[in-house]
Records
---
Amino acid sequence: MDEQKNMLTAAVLSFAVIALWFILFPPEPPQPVPAEQPAVSAVGAGKAGAPAAGDAATAAGAPALMTREEALARSPRVPVRTPRLSGSIALRGARLDDLHLLDYRETIEPDSDTVTLLSPVGTEHPFFIVHGWLPVADAPGAAPIPTPGPNTEWRVESGDELGVDKPVTLVWDNGQGLTFRRKISVDENYMFTVEQTVTNAGERPVALAPYGYVARRGQPETVNFYILHEGGLGVFDGTLVELDYDELKELEGDGGPGVVQRKIPVERNGWLGFTDKYWMATLAPPHDEGFEAVFRYRRGARGEIDQEYRAESILPVVTVAPGATASASTRAFAGAKEYATIREYERQGIERFTDAIDWGWFFFLTKPILQLLLFIKGLVGNMGVAIILLTLIVKAALFPLAYKSYVAMSKMKMLQPEIEKIKERCGDDKVKLQQEIMALYRKEKANPAAGCLPILLQIPIFFSLYKVLFVTIEMRHAPFFGWIRDLSAPDPSSILNLFGLLPWDAPGHDSLLGIFSIGVLPILLGISMWLQQKLNPEPADPTQKMIFAWMPWIFMFMLGQFASGLVLYWIANNMITFIQQYVIMRSQGVEVDVLGNVKRSFKRRKRG
């Protein structure tokens, strides 16, 4: 019976870990977001003496909340059109505040709206990117130099539409000898390049600091799931910094009335911004050029509805001599966190840009799992098939260890008659019983714990694959076959309406009855676990027998709420394990009577 105890120990450990995970990290629907009301002013950029960047568009008396069309109409605009993006740039402030991701839709329905990433002030969830120049006073009390800010009215100097290989140049004259230009370009994916120049036609040198920031207003809409980071993030001289929205509120640096902040000096390379589950907007100053990174939070005068979160980069001060021109360039990413896309930008000098994806503690597993999945998917064209093939590869890699474990289990099974004789001989003397059993193990070179290792090693792989399925956009809306149209979501079929045969909708997975609303894949998972148990006769101990009997069905309901891709992996893993164990045990001379065990199981239940 020792091999069954080993199996029971491994199964209980697996069950305990997954149960703990399920309890600590239950699936949660997105939290409702309060209606947004624009803030009265933006937070100022952070050099000493720098004025606050006011937002005239949100002055007192402005509407509390507008439709997107109304907010967009408040400023002249330059269209943005690429194969993957559409939107516009507001000439007021030269803000990038209107952006749609054409390759992604809100739902799996082909006619659903495309994903909206950036939105202007005045809408429910303002999210935008601003660039500008900060004047640096040359003497205390000196009059500030007029510089372009978030509300400056720019005019178009060249270009009538921003597109791939179609840059747009905007210009603004401050009336005191300084002419500012902003050339904006975009590549075929999601990277904008903003080149700012200033020409000094005056008689005195001027000192200016170029800056850029990504801002979100109101309470950002989040998934609110513990294993996923959403909020501020950046990499500064090789160090990853993550600050969720609650942490941003608790910053301790003083940034002025109602403002808290954290400043991070960057010596050579870095980037920062805000990330959602699948999307992000970030700024990347020039490679090998230092800057000051600042995370800010401004408390709203009316609570959460007009608070502001900001990730800001301030470049070194430049002095522009009379008749001279100075320039500064910053890249701004606004789009989907596609691994191949952001890896290419990483290769172009944005250090650790792929760490915008939340790889988690098992990053040494999640990264190669995703890379391997994408490679296989590129070969077969179907993510579900790629998951099954990945399972085969993982099982092949673990096969030497599995072979040793199943050989050890077979040896333990063959030792059962000897162990029964020892039990009869020792009677109630437990010390002598243990001594003789351990002596038998040493003599036969048997390891009663060997059977636990394969299952225990699969636990981090299980969690890593779950992490990949949950956080990576490549899994979003990825179809398998038939009714499985999104491997990142639970199986949509339900036993409660006989998988669509009955004319009513099944409860959602986020409802109380949702745990019983399991689909075809979770049921197949339970069956596959049940079949694995039938490789061995039922244990004689009533407690062990009860645990074994309930284990597959408890897992079936628990994992029924997980992503279909993960359940598909688990089914494939169970069936491959079943075949491996059956073949190895037979090769070791162990009699394996699966059908007989199944029949005996049903007969006992029928008699009971």
---
Amino acid sequence: MTATKGIEAVTERIRERSRALREAYLERVDEAASKGPHRSVLSCGNLAHGFAACAPGDKAALAGDEVPNLGIITSYNDMLSAHQPFEDYPKLIKQAAHEAGGVAQVAGGVPAMCDGVTQGQPGMELSLFSRDVIAMATAVGLSHNMFDAAVYLGICDKIVPGLTIAAFTFGHIPAIFIPAGPMTTGLPNDEKARVRQLYAEGKVGREELLEAESKSYHGPGTCTFYGTANSNQMLMEIMGLHIPGASFVNPNTPLRDALTREAVKRALSITGLGNEFTPVGRMIDEKSIVNAVVGLNATGGSTNHTMHLVAMARAAGIHITWEDISDISDQVPLLARVYPNGLADVNHFHAAGGLGFLIRELLDAGLLHEDVRTVWGDGLRSYAIEPKLGEDGSVIREPAPAKSGNEKVLARYPKAFQPTGGLRVLRGNMGKAIIKTSAVKPEKRVVEAPAIVFHAQEELQAAFKAGELDRDFVAIIRFQGPKANGMPELHKLTPVLGLLQDRGYHVALVTDGRMSGASGKVPAAIHVTPEALDGGPIGRVQTGDMVRLDAEKGTLEILVDQAEFETRPLAQADLSGNSFGMGRELFEGFRKLASRADEGAAVF
């Protein structure tokens, strides 16, 4: 089925806007690909350095140009649950490569930090910029020019976008992303949130809070709520960068290992040495990017991807905007309810039919482009499946179930949870912002109340503890953008604002910072751009000004005399404390170079 006229119109708009950028990109991809297997251009000294540590058999294989060499880029570390399973992947990948007649080498490692560890801490100010560091670190690993294809081991928040930017930059070689999967279900996410709120009220202590958090985040794999990490996996699959069915299989299971082995063999089969050469820069196009935006909206995915997708697409010569994301949201219904958009976690989503079911529903409704290239070699319909383990240990793919296993978690298209997607762009005299509507009840989506202005999240928390926030208000937290302090997530404010909302107050958040994929039940206008430090109107708001946030109409307005508002001086803030500690000294250049949030918040 072809895409609807509305989806096709947005796609064509992106195609026209991107034409010059995309043509220049594809010329570079084709020129690099035309040089053939890249070890052939290395001198003997270069090549000897490249395989010096290999086993004799691999040395002999790499000495010629007829055996494909697979580069592994890994984000392994054993502190973070999502990345710990990658410890044994290189051994498994090398074994699978040998079985397929190829060789695999670890080309490089990239950093992987966890926003869950750094929430509310100085290290969070490195988080967003770590995406670009990861892209650059990947480039260093692949710059040795030894590889016919690459596999990327990454899963969490900034890691996958950074790896994707690098993969598209090296668009002349095939790329497959290999995930590790989500941890098994622990303490329900709503119970975890309840304990957090009780802690904010002072009704339970740190011991009870830590016990709840430890029961929720309890083993290897990604966190089970639908934040940026699991949105990443959805995007990789719906863009055709995973093999079908790979996203949400738990770590350390036979099926997980079978999917990994299969991904390796597939990567080796799509190099320039065979008949199915699939350079990722040619494979991914405007339709693939639109499919990613459709999936993000249909699942109520992470707000972070309103920046990441812009930066990822740009690396492939494709220029998308927040308006594209918003226009697609108007056409795409919400088909999944996974926490914080509902009570279920990603394991429940997978059990109900998962991505295969969702992709099938969206394809049948004409909301996805079916005629795209994927690493699997055919269109997107081949991803409308359910993966299972065969008796011989191989992967079996069956058609996605006709019915949802749980209609409260995963809906058929005719029974969508809401008619529009989970993300929306707000516009008004305060600039542009993003809001995640899928977790906010309809009756809470419009807030008109006086502003209370803060320059740090700690100021709001202090005001709450002092009893100053028991009223209707819109919290304005500014000087939190990329140029100011690296745009940290402000997710630690969620329990406080949620508690005030539960007490019956009309509350909302407006910030040039981030709230992440875990944005919850309180309406939050985030990524406000231009940011305060960049001269944005948010810098003119004063405590007491009436602010109206209307997520239904898509507006964000300060209700004061416009002429008077525009002549107000911009607020100033002492940001010297952001320039040192926990490595922030090393990122001063990034803060100066960072683009606006709606341009991807990138430094290159």
---
Amino acid sequence: MKSIIVSLFILLGLLSSAQQWTPVQGKMMTRWASEITPDQVWNEYPRPQFERENWQNLNGLWDFTIQKREQALPQKFRGKILVPFSVESALSGVGKSVMPDDRLWYKRSFSVPAGWQGKSILLNFEAVDYAASVWVNGALVGSHKGAYDRFSFDITKYLKNKGQQEIIVCVDDPSSFGVQPRGKQQMPQQGIWYTPVSGIWQTVWLEAVSSEAFLAEAKITPDIDSESVSIIPMLNKPLKPEYMVTATVLKDGKEIASGEVVADRNMDIKIEAPELWSPDHPFLYDLKLTLTNADGEILDEVSSYFGMRKISLGDLNGNQYLFLNNEPLFHYGTLDQGWWPDGLHTPPSDEAMKYDIQLTKDMGFNMIRKHIKVEPDRWYYHCDQLGILVWQDMPSGMVILPEDGQERPARVQHVSRHGDDLNQRSADAAQFEWELRRMIDLHYNSPSIVIWVPFNEGWGQYATCRISDQVKALDPTRLVNAVSGWALRPCGDIYDIHTYQTEVHVPATSLDRASVIGEYGGIGYPIDGHLWNPNMRNWGYQTYHSADELLKNYQYKFDQIVEMKKSKGLSAAVYTQTTDVEGEVNGLITYDREVIKIPVDTLRNIHSVLFEE
């Protein structure tokens, strides 16, 4: 009888949650949207490269309201929002725009598991767009600026001894009226610019760690030439006496190597006859990090992984070329915007996010250029597991500053509302560079990422060579594509042009840089019944209206890429794009992920010629 009553209460709770949330009606949805409930939304552990056992997901229904910035803390919230979907998205259940003079507020309660007594409690936000402040039980615990990097607060001292705890979050987002890094967001949406995203858009969660000390992060650097891996395990704060960290490397579940070092220092572990990571063989080693104090007590255990691989430039037939694991490898991939019709920046589920990557791989591509967006950590985890090379763009900001010793770039989108105040522009540049550094630091351990791209097509481009050098100094293990397309500068490892003409342009060869086509193609094919808005201009750089025409013109452009690889020293090409996005219909897949425009097997067979010896 008791179990029946409990089941009824659970059922009533689920029905109550469902009644408080439904997706915004009349919007394009993907097949995964129907599987979402407030109790089943992004439940996966959000950081696969730094995983602990004790955690609690805070995704689900939160209270929310939108009001003007000058107004005080709201006394009443207007409704429910499904976190982690942005307020503009259909899956949030809201579908409202946030204007530059608006402020978005969130509230929810939670309880701390009884087993966490004596632990420090961390409140983690994987991403909030753009400036967030957080209160716990009425006390301000911290603030953060940046749309694409995670942040955490130790909230232990703000918690009540028992009962329900309260979180309040406020968010300011200037959208396209500011100069902050924001990628393709624009108000109003049009052309190649998409619906803005505001507020929480990745997982919110709690984590229990030792109150004495815990591991904050680890920097993992493989070296295939020396057959070793370097690991720097870092504590949450400098501590004495010294704390020790043991690193255990596992292959197929069996320990093959280990090392021990004082926390915050480097250890090198020998990997005998390493199994190398590549798109054809994406092998990953498991890694366990164990933190102990002077008494030998285990304070923290973290699970991670790494891949043994090397990305470099090398000589091939007198040209600089992209090498992987000391062998030449042509990079061929899609420009991937990472936008979804129902979730905007946020995929409807982890399964949906993996689908795009797997389908790209099945089509015979070995690379994705992640275009001016940073994805959730799990996206890179799937790329690591599936074997996809990643060119990672920095989301474009619109800081207006001159080049070092040069005129400002010719192509600039959406000029800052700050006017010409140099101090403000310098502060905006400092924020951009801080967010760039965060992107590199947070995703340093991912073996799939092989190239950093600080700038795209002159959008907010400034001090290109200084910033290129800065990126290289932060991460000398990867290549730097200083600017992809148009406003090229004599620095970085790659010479990159964009060409959307029917006749694909040939990039110049360089004595010290690899030549690539960072964007080409863009062939539009609108399919009725699968358009974001049938009444708007649905366009591509060239637009056709049948699958046969699309395939014919794709093959024609691709053949030119093959010839450039054979005779012009071309190292890579990026086709625009993975999916249709809003008014752009130049994807290989429709925006709702329902129609694959060229059969997968056909594409894989076409592409195979690029990887023949």
